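fyi for ur records
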Amino acid sequence: MADARPDDTVMHTLARVCGLLDTLRTAVAAGGEAEFDRIVAELRQGGHDATREQRTLAALGALNELLRRSGVAGGLGAATRGAGIGGLPPLDGHPVLDVLVCPRGLCARTVSARNQAPEARTCRLYGEPLRGRTLS
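which gave:
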């Protein structure tokens, strides 16, 4: 059986988690850092099969609960809203032709390739450079 891509909702949530990883780490209450690191390690396992998607959903659920226990009332939902039209970030009126995407194709993160600092060109989940892609 061929590998299936993760569900769009999972991909979009992973994209936002990737883009906000440092902010989410900061939001975790003292004493929750080790749990946060374990959850991120689980998310980094990758893969496209159904079992992997179930484990990813479980890890996202654990992250949601950790954020709630840390005082983020909306949990992961509060941190992942407002992705912009079609999942692309707001662009100040300039069309995006060249973008950077997930190096493993596991999430829907898409950022403009223009004027990005070196740290913004790296996947925060996998520590790999984002892949360049041209939108048509």
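The chain has a mean pLDDT of 78. thats all i got for now
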